[in-house]
Design brief:
binds nicotinamide-adenine-dinucleotide; three-stranded mixed β-sheet; 12 strands; alpha/beta; 337 residues; binds 2'deoxy-thymidine-5'-diphospho-alpha-D-glucose; globular; Rossmann fold
């Protein structure tokens, strides 16, 4: 099987490529990535020499670049991980690049896949498209799509275009919607790696609002194993929710990290809330469990310890991604909070 993975230099894409190469001998992977601030080829340094792997620098929002890659290979499947993925950036730095990459970029891939007769298109989506939950219940695949921030609105827009390509043009598409991932190689703008990085330097840990917003945390390799299963066995036109049922308030996650790192809770700093901050996410993954037999393999306890160990052992990776523009962007996102 020859697959195109877009956004493979990012957090989840790089973990997915590594997992695919480890689990399947008969796979060839082309990684198409624009190498934005979130893309980092260091995350794939260990597989760069694998003859089954190739990297192409290209932008999914550029039709010509997408068509050129698609024409140079005969792909059996396209997996679209590429996205602008950070909610705070979509709020504070403007939605244009989110619309460009997440919606137009997805459409370019759909068009190219259709014209080249690609047999399967997997769209990596998110639980955020469902919006926010009240105190009870969990998102199912039948939950209405009601996104609340520019990032999730563009991911929802992309999901609808994928659905349309499937329904109107018969392209074989499947959509996965996963909850919050954590694990190795995550850019330290997201809650868990940001808190680990700040705690290691004894810097304040900025907790938004009252810290009681709930997220459902899944170890990245569990998400990747679910995507691999959906790629091979998912039913055309279906959506699959993926979550681990570990849904806890942010403050609990932050206190757990401080305890495991041996740092003081006095580092916690409550700051101004995120506008339109979704209060609670929780995923009902019954469908993928019953239909495809998927189960998460990692408890939060095991996954978070492995994540901390990874960041401690890979301080150079962390230092490198925090150099350059990281500091000025951090100031922009947290100014006035
Ligand atoms: P990330 O920000 O770490 O990586 C995104 C990657 O996409 C980077 O390598 C970047 O260079 C690349 N990219 C961005 N714009 C591009 C463009 N125009 N053309 C080509 N490449 C481009 O993101 P992530 O956390 O790995 O998320 C991957 C996907 O999974 C996204 O689609 C995201 O919406 C989805 N998702 C993420 C989570 C999560 O918790 N992180 C949960 C559910 C779903
Ligand atoms: O649910 C899946 C989504 O999870 C993905 O689609 C997104 O790409 C991914 O970024 C993530 O979105 P969140 O907004 O939930 O993740 P983030 O890590 O930014 O924030 C997690 C929670 O922690 C959220 O309630 C906001 C809060 N938070 C975050 C940061 C960065 C803080 O309290 N302080 C912070 O500094």
């Amino acid at each position: 099987m020859k697959i195109l993975v877009t956004g493979g230099a990012g957090f989840i894409g790089s973990n997915f490529i590594r997992l695919c190469l480890q689990s399947h001998d008969d796979i060839e992977v082309v990684n198409l990535d624009a190498l934005t601030y979130a893309g980092n080829l260091e995350s794939l340094a260990d597989v760069a020499g694998d003859p089954r792997y190739e990297f192409v620098k290209a932008d999914i929002a550029n039709r010509d670049e997408v068509n050129a890659v698609m024409e140079a290979h005969a792909f059996d499947a396209v997996l679209n991980f590429a996205a602008e993925s950070h909610v705070d950036r979509s709020l504070h730095m403007g939605p244009q690049i989110f619309i460009q990459t997440n919606i137009l970029g997805t459409q370019n891939l759909l068009d190219a896949a259709r014209s080249r007769g690609v047999a399967r298109f997997v769209q990596i989506s998110t639980d955020e498209v469902y919006g926010s939950l009240g105190p009870e219940g969990a998102f199912s695949e039948a939950t209405p799509v009601l996104p609340n921030n520019p990032y999730s609105a563009t991911k929802a827009g992309a999901d609808f275009m994928v659905r349309a390509a499937c329904r109107s043009h018969g392209l074989d598409c499947v959509i996965t919607r996963c909850s919050n991932n954590y694990g190795p190689y995550q850019f330290p703008e997201k809650l868990i790696p940001l808190m680990i990085a700040n705690a290691l330097e004894e810097k304040p840990l900025p907790v938004y609002g009252d810290g009681m917003h709930v997220r459902d945390w899944i170890y990245v390799l569990d998400h990747c194993s679910a995507i691999d299963l959906v790629l091979r066995q998912g039913k055309t036109g279906e959506v699959y929710n993926i979550g681990s049922m570990y849904d806890v308030p942010n403050i609990q996650v932050v206190k757990t990290l401080l305890r495991l790192l041996g740092k003081s809770e006095s580092l916690i700093k409550y700051v101004k809330d995120r506008p339109g901050h979704d209060r609670r996410y929780a995923m009902d993954s019954t469908k993928i469990k019953n239909e495809l037999g998927w189960e998460p393999a990692y408890t939060f306890e095991r996954g978070i310890q492995q994540t901390i160990d990874w960041y401690l052992a890979n301080s150079t990776w962390l230092e490198n991604v925090r150099s350059g523009e990281y500091q000025s962007n951090y100031e922009k996102l947290y100014a006035g909070r």
